[in-house]
Amino acid sequence: MSKVMMTIQSKKGPPELQVIHDYYGLKDSEIDKEFGVIEIDPEDGTYVILIEEDAAKKIVDTKDWKVKGPHSNPRIAPFGPPQTKDNF
Known about the structure:
The chain starts with a strand and ends in a 17-residue tail after the last strand. Helix content is 8%, strand content 30%. The chain has one helix at residues 17-23; strands spanning 3-10, 38-41, 46-52, 65-71. Strand 2 and strand 3 (46-52) form a beta hairpin. The protein has a single domain, classed as Alpha-Beta Plaits (2-Layer Sandwich), CATH 3.30.70. The longest helix is centred in the N-terminal third of the chain and has 7 residues, at 17-23. It has 1 helix and 4 strands.
């Protein structure tokens, strides 16, 4: 299954991953605990989590959180061999 990103805007600081997990009733396999909760806009209080695509429909707005997504999570890979000072 592929993973997608969901953004959570929280004015009360970063939501804890376990709180997100429990609130939405996610299975351990549906949320990427290694990825965690990443701050992407400190001024706006926006954070991102990585979840399984099928679980995205469970993540909705709450009283404290405004949710957007799902957003794609494209694989990032180099375009060629690593560059060194000798092959510039």
